[in-house]
Structures
1.
Amino acid sequence: MVFFWKAGTSYTEGSGLRIEFYTDCMITSQAHLMTVLKQLLKEFWLPLLAAIVWTSYNIWEVPQWSIRTVLNVWVPTFFFVSWLASQWYRVRKQQKVETGLSNIEERIKQTLAELDAKTADLAAYITGGESVCWLIGIPVVSDIITEIAVQHVGKHPLYEVNARIVDLEVFEEIRRNLPHDHFGRSETYHQFGNLIPGHTLVVPANISMGNASSRNFNIFYTARNGSFTQELRYRRVNGGWLYATKVSRGNITLHEQVQEGFPLNANGGIDW
């Protein structure tokens, strides 16, 4: 794009702005033209060089030559090598495009995976995810449990937590000797509400441990994220009570804790 300023035109502020605009356009056009020429030189230097070398070689072998002879050798050589070079550039560009598309595909997959993980994490904050809780009677140095400590386990909060504590010794006694409609005597119900990760909820209780050397409890929890079960086992050792407990959902153990000194069986395990 080339612009001319007509000589003799009166100079005003507006015309000065137009001259400055025309000058900028000329500079921009020249820069664009240089860019095109550099690209042409980049892509056609090899065909041009090959055509010159091949033509020079053929002229050197022929004693007499003319412009027609030069053109008959140079033009086909130039276009043939140009075609080969264009195929080379095309294949290389296609490889770059395919590599770029593969990188984009990988980034999209990674983004989708991260989005799925964040979506699942957000849903877990609403439902509770895989979090659970477990309880222990405190203190356990006497035969009366006056407080229950409920401890959260997991990354996400638990909502609407309810527990049904079953005293297995009382349950077995009722099962053997009393009508089954007395099973409620072996059960205690608690509502713990919402539990925050990393926190412990302490609630009052009144559970007699009796004079036995062992006490066994099963605790059945329900929460917004489903149900899970805790097995709590006490053993009297040196006048005090030691405990072992594990929390499971189905056949999967989610948490297990054994107090040091808790009696083990012959195989080194715990009789749950």
Note: Residues 1-12 have pLDDT under 50 and may be disordered.
2.
Amino acid sequence: MIAISPDRPKELRKSLEAKGLGYSLYSDSKLTAARAFGIAFQLTDEEVSKYAQYGIDLESASGEELQQLPVPSIFLVEAGGTIRWTHSDPDYRVRPDNAAILEAARGLETEAQARHGEYTGDEAVAQEGDPRADVPLSEDPGALR
């Protein structure tokens, strides 16, 4: 698991030291990754002032004058780099609980194993030659999105 933050590395080191996180934390202070994922949004001057009222200096935290933030998002990405499940919501308070994320990850693991003929559970698995074996996950109506 990794996390990507709009804060510059200096600020992230403070978080890592204070919170003892059990995952890798990467800086995206120029919001390059956020733009690539399509989750960067522009703040109004009023919103920037509101953050300042809460003691949050976005320019100091990121080291940039972008006045942008990423929409809080979660991406489950398979080893080949394909995004298989996402959750994004502009309201940072709306987040899936850990159980929902784990369920989605386990479902994707099972689907990946099925695609490679490794799944040995009770569910039917498409075998080589079966037209369902080559259907990309995005076209499967039962797939998590």
Note: The chain has a mean pLDDT of 79.
